[in-house]
TrEMBL record:
GO cellular component: cytoplasm
Coiled coil ranges: none
GO function term, MF aspect, one: phosphatase activity
SUPFAM superfamilies (alphabetical): HAD-like
UniProt superkingdom: Bacteria
Name under which the protein is recorded: HAD-superfamily hydrolase, subfamily IIA
Keyword annotations of the record: Hydrolase
Every GCN5-related N-acetyltransferase-like domain range: 286-331
Length: 338
């Protein structure tokens, strides 16, 4: 298999790594609702010595607010255990701007706080001639806010997005995310912004530096943000199947989006992870389950689509074939159930 393949662990991941960089929406909770097994699993992982740092592309909220919500969901958390895209956005601004520079903030109070704490002067209008626009999600953003961003960017301000997630999971389903709002400014200006959030690895690097971790593990539910960011930052990534991306998405993933580990939910932190191995007749085998690719089509063993180990075997077979120039036909990949 290619170097973009799955990894194995003979000990539970909570014991193999010293820091978990945990995404929020779709991993620790869904909207304002808990995700089954999240609290018990994270508390148990902490008891085994795994430090937790929650890393979110949401730039609208203060770290204290995020920590409070997690604590209410029986995941005791302090503000210094939260890293937001707002903080990463402010750090990215510091790479080019001097303290005191005027920055138009289009976003929530979390982004305002982070940009102010970084030493910049926050302004609210393009008429104040900002040198940069920091854009992050907030549920009350309006057309007028996006228009001010467009005016400033058109006048030459550096456009920095906290993240470019197109969708945002809520208790009612998926709603437009910051990437959709950023897209409106891009459509008006023709200028592509820099992005501080995942899949850029900026937040992961900042989080690892904050803690001084030696063996960090990224945990997320989206291949195109969390796990792509893990690959980009050269960190191992665990995909939990409780959010946006599915097991089928794993099988069809491009190398830059592939996870290193796959689990049904956060209980996978407390489990070992067998690595798929090549067997006879083209089969890839994992803990008694098997999959192979024949003439560009995925085949599963007789036990069918259920089970996390068949997901792992299917990924191994499909990725090996794709990396050898024999991509799998998407219509041959069923919805797999962990």
């Amino acid at each position: 298999m290619s170097t973009a393949g799955l990894l194995g662990s003979d000990v539970p991941l909570a014991e193999a790594y010293d820091l978990a960089l945990v995404d929020l929406d779709g991993v620790a909770y869904r909207g304002h609702l808990p995700i089954e097994h999240a609290s018990d699993s994270l508390v148990a992982a902490r008891s085994r010595g795994l430090r937790l740092l929650f890393v979110t592309n949401n730039a609208s909220r203060e770290p204290e607010d995020v920590a409070g919500q997690l604590t209410e969901l029986d995941i005791p958390t302090s503000a210094d255990e939260v890293m937001t895209a707002a903080q990463a956005c402010a750090a990215l601004l510091r790479t080019r701007l001097e303290p005191g520079a005027r920055v138009l903030v289009v976003g929530g109070k979390g982004l305002v706080t982070a940009v102010t704490a970084a030493g910049f002067r926050v302004v609210s209008s393009a008429d104040e001639e900002p040198v940069a626009v920091a854009q992050g999600f907030a549920p009350d953003l309006a057309w007028a806010d996006l228009a001010e961003a467009a005016y400033a960017v058109s006048a030459g301000a550096w456009h920095v997005a906290s993240n470019r997630d197109l969708s945002l999971p809520t208790a009612r389903g998926y709603a437009p995310g910051n990437g959709a709002l950023v897209g409106a400014v891009v459509a008006a200006t023709g200028v592509e912004p820099a992005s501080a959030g995942k899949p850029e690895p900026t937040m992961y690097h900042l989080a690892v530096e904050r803690v001084g971790a030696q063996r960090p593990l990224v945990i997320g539910d989206r291949l195109d943000t969390d796990l792509q960011g893990a690959r980009a930052g050269d960190y191992p990534g665990l995909h939990v199947l409780t959010g946006v991306s599915s097991a089928r998405d794993d099988v069809l993933a491009e190398p830059a989006l592939r996870p290193h580990f796959i689990g049904a939910d956060l209980r996978s932190l407390l489990e070992t992870h067998p690595v798929p191995e090549p067997g006879a007749d083209g089969w890839w085998e994992c803990a008694g389950r098997a999959a192979r690719v024949v003439d560009g089509r995925l085949e599963l063993d007789r036990e069918g689509v259920r089970g996390i180990d068949v997901v792992r075997a299917a990924c191994a077979a499909a990725w090996d074939a794709a990396d050898a120039g024999r991509p799998v036909a998407p219509d041959s990949v069923p919805e797999l159930t962990a």
